[in-house]
Every structure is written in C-alpha cells, then in structure tokens.
Amino acid sequence: MCYPRVEINLAKIRNNTLKLVEMCNENNIDVVGVTKVFCGKPKIVREMVKGGIRVIGDSRIENLKKLKRFKLPKLLLRLPMISEVEQVVQYADISLNSEIETIRRLSKEAKKRNLRHKIILMVDLGDLREGIFDEEEIFETVEIIISLDNIDLIGIGTNLTCYGGILPEKSNLQHLLTLKETIRKKYKLNLKVVSGGNSSSLHLIEAGDMPKGINQLRLGESIVLGRETAYGNTIEDTYQDAMTLQCEIIELQDKPSVPIGTIGMDAFGNVPSFNDKGIRKRAICAIGRQDVDPTDILPGDKNIEIIGSSSDHLILDVTDSNENYTVGSILRFSLKYGSVLSLFTSEYVKKIYV
Ligand SMILES: *Cc1c(COP(=O)(O)O)cnc(C)c1O
User: Fold this and answer.
1) Same domain as 182, residue 57
2) Residue 74 lies in a domain
3) Is 68 a catalytic residue?
4) Strand boundaries in 18-112, DSSP class E
C-alpha cells in the first residue's frame, strides 16, 4: 500500500470515452483522444482506444513516443519547436501549426526521411493563444504549404477557452467553415479536417448549435472528468470520479487556528492571515504543493476543510467531520483539471489502476 496515490478506474475511463465518442459521432465528429493530462500513460490510452477515439493527441512529443505501439494516427497538439522537428516527423503523423518557417523545416525533415507529414493549420478566432490571426496571412500560408514537398495540408483548426477564456460559439466556429470554403475555391483544395476545439466545444453539441462541417474535436478533460469545460457542466452518463486522489494522515492534533508569534512570510513568500476559530482538530496529509495545488482538489468528506499546504504537507481542519480519523487514515479527494495534470507529473504520486 503506497500513498499518496491517484486511483484510476479504467472501466470508467472507457465508459466516458464511449459516451463522448457516441455523442460526437452522431454529429459526424471524430474524436481525438487527448492524453497530455495523464502524461500519456499507455494503460489509460488503451481504454480510450477501446472507447472509439480515432486519433491520439498529445502536446508533448515525449508522450507520443511512449505511445508508438498504438496503431492510431498521432497528433502533436502543441506547435512544434523547430528544435524538435526530427522527432515530430518520426513520432507524430499530424501536427498543429501556425508558423511557416516551422512547416518548412518539417517538410525538409520529412523529405529527408522519405515520409509524409500532415498539417492542420491553426487559426486564432480570438482566444489569442496559438493560430494565425490575420486572414490574408492564412491564405498566404496555405499557398506556401501546398507548394512544399512531403507535407499534406489536411485541415484547419482552432483552439478556444484556453488563454482568453473565449467560448466556442456557432458564430466563431462558422468562420472556420467559411475559411475552408474559400480555400476550396481559391486553391482547389478540399480540406478533410475542420478541428473545432477542445472539451469546451461540447456544449454546442448538447445545445444542437454545432455548425455542420466541424468534423473533429480534441477531447481530454471531458473524457477524464466527465464534464464539458465551457460552463463546467457534467456530461450525461459519464463518471466524474474516474480518477481520485488518496493520501495518508501523518499528524492529527488539536491546535489553535491562529499561529503563535509574529507573522512574517510563509514558504511561498506570501503573508498569511487567519480567522480565529479557537482550538481545532487539524490533520496533516503527506502530499504538498510539489505534487498538487490544494485549491484543485476537493475532499470526499464534505465536512473537511483544506486550510493550507506547503511543499510536502497538506493541512486540513477535520473538526466537523463525523468520521473517526486516526494517524494512518486515508483521505480521498476528487480532482479538477489542474490537479490531474500535476499529480500525474509528480513522480512522488503513485498511479494505481483498478
Ligand atoms: C490540451 C489541448 C486540447 C484538449 O483540451 P481539453 O480541454 O482537455 O479537452 C485540445 N487541443 C489542444 C491544442 C490542446 O492543447
């Protein structure tokens, strides 16, 4: 028995994938299963594959490398670094791109290796993360790409809600379809893929507002946590607890709620402030900020309050709990996107599959 641990329920991951794939397929949308939140762990990817994803997507080439043995096409989600183009053409079949210089390098490298590399050109619809913003520049780039050796321009795509918090709507996604149409007319090029975003685009399907012609979504969080991310609503017939965190109590003592002495800065350079609630029963769990941001986890026991954490310690107020915790007790937490990401990245947290 090793703690802290993330427990991954593989059947629930498969179920969530099946539901989302079904929902998307009914709308003629293929699902890219995004694996970066869980560092591309092959056991979890296998469940996504059984659940019917069509493409494996990850932002890190290291993860795609680990997934070489899966037969599905691999999509690199983060714009390639020029310094990694060799590995990109080797381990990714498709990459999202917005920089012509990078695409030129990919072309050179693909030619050298005598293989073809596929490109989805990213368009910035206003969220202001990646993608070409200027419309004229989009067409200029398309024109150059189609002249390059060993490169296939297979589609256009966009990413929303990630930086600017801009929601996918009928109107902005419709713009992608207009671009596709213009490219078809101007260059006699029928782009196969129109990639309409991430888990924040699902609400459009649920509302019946997804523009016809958007035929790919790249889904990570919704598969793992069973929620769409535009409004944070749960998705019908999916599980929100396919992954949970468990950690162990290493100290359980009654203490005042306000520290004693002169308050300076805490371990992270902040000056903390405290409410005096008198003497409280406090538990310390063996997990810290090195593994997870305490605001990204929720105690399964609703009567527990997280009151702080340092690099290796999570401090909880358990006074109001009806449970009889002791030193060595295991506490369970539910997860959010940020905590899944960091818990999987931390090598101090064990991953247990059930
Ligand atoms: C992370 C990522 C996704 C998946 O986002 P979710 O919100 O987890 O569905 C899709 N596309 C790109 C470009 C990404 O970086």
Assistant:
1) yes
2) yes
3) no
4) 30-34, 55-58, 74-76, 94-97
